[in-house]
Amino acid sequence: MKSSVATPPYTLNHPRWYRKRVSTYWWLLRWEYLRFVLREISSVFVAWFVVLTIVQIYAVSRGPDAYAEFQDFLKNPFVLALNVISFFFVVFHSITWFNLSARAMAIRIGGKRVPGFLISGPNFAAWLVISALIAWLLLRE
Amino acid sequence: MDAQPTKLRIEPLLWLLFSAGGGVAAFFIPIHLFILGIAAPLGLTKATDYASATAFLAFPIVRFYLFVLCSLPLFHAAHRIRYTLYDGLQIKHLNEVIAACCYGGAVLGTVIAGYLLWSFQ
Predict the structure, then answer these.
(1) CATH class of the region A43-128
(2) Which residue of B has its CA nearest to A127?
(3) Mean pLDDT, range B97-115, rounded to an integer
(4) Using the beta-carbon criterion (under 8 Å), do A90 and B42 form an inter-chain contact?
(5) Minimal Cα–Cα distance from B34 to chain A, Å?
(6) A54, B109: Cβ pair inside 8 Å?
(7) What are the extents of the domains in chain A?
(8) Contact at CB, A134 and B46, closer than 8 angstroms
(9) What pLDDT sits at residue A11?
(10) Hey, is the C-beta of B14 within 8 angstroms of any chain A C-beta?
(11) Considering B22, B23, B38, B85, which has the largest number of Cβ atoms within 10 A of its Cβ?
(12) Is the CB of A47 less than 8 angstroms away from the CB of B46?
């Protein structure tokens, strides 16, 4: 006898699903949706920071003149404005990321789920400490 | 929507890179961007001069740090941009092309950063 697993009792064909076409601008309809999309868009500014860092490393490797040129480039008003916008986006990324970590990590102690702020809290604290440390390393005389 | 946006078997690895890169970006990028892109050009803090920049880069640990700081966030961004185009703008017929461009860009950036940092004198 053949296995019954191979022949399911229901038909494999099903009628076409009715799916309403979602507007391309669905993410503008609600603040929650827009916030989600802004969070996703923050990654473009993360990529911009990486490009900036690679160009900086390249400039240093090319010598003092190239490095001075790079620093002038950073003083360009458009670049400065872009960096200010980027800064807000990467901070938004950090905040949403740490808040998300509390949702993603379901830690249970004694059968009860640890509340979110006990997970995101240390992340925010670590962020502060790391930022202070980097600032100290870069700015000390 | 189709059940599977992609048939890539490396999806778990890509997600891991996304997650690691998101963490690196969240912890390290804001302060770097603030000092490099805002505070120093405005004169609020001193800009890292050429001598200290080369002194920093002389440390292998600094070069390794910069490599991680460049590479992982690029994979994070690639993953997010890919899915934003997929869900947000619903560009589904170009799924493979977008994925290739996003991850390809991340690989390219990683190779460039790795080459520059590796060959730094």
Answers:
(1) mainly alpha
(2) B27
(3) 94
(4) no
(5) 6
(6) yes
(7) 43-128
(8) no
(9) 66
(10) no
(11) B22
(12) no
* Domain locations in chain B as residue ranges: 11-118
Inter-chain residue contact A75 with B25, CB threshold 8 Å: no
Best A26, A33, A40, A43 member to test B by mutation, with max B CBs in 10 Å, is A43
pLDDT per residue, tens digit, chain A (141 aa), is 445 556 666 666 766 777 788 888 888 888 988 999 999 999 999 999 999 999 999 999 999 999 999 999 999 999 999 999 999 999 999 999 999 888 877 778 888 888 888 888 999 999 999 999 999 999 987
Secondary structure of chain A in HEC code, one letter for each residue: CCCCCCCCCCCCCCCCCCCCCCCCCHHHCCHHHHHHHHHHHHHHHHHHHHHHHHHHHHHHHHCHHHHHHHHHHHHCHHHHHHHHHHHHHHHHHHHHHHHHHHHHCCCEECCEECCCHHHHHHHHHHHHHHHHHHHHHHHCC
Quote the ipTM score. Answer: 0.89
pLDDT in tens, B19-61: 999 999 999 999 999 999 999 999 998 888 999 999 999 999 9
The first and second tokens of residue B3, run together, are: 């059940």
Question: Of B89, B78, B63, B88, whose CA–CA distance to B25 is shortest?
Answer: B78
The structure tokens 């700015």 sit at A139
pLDDT at B94 over 70: yes
B11-118 is classed in which CATH architecture? Up-down Bundle (1.20)
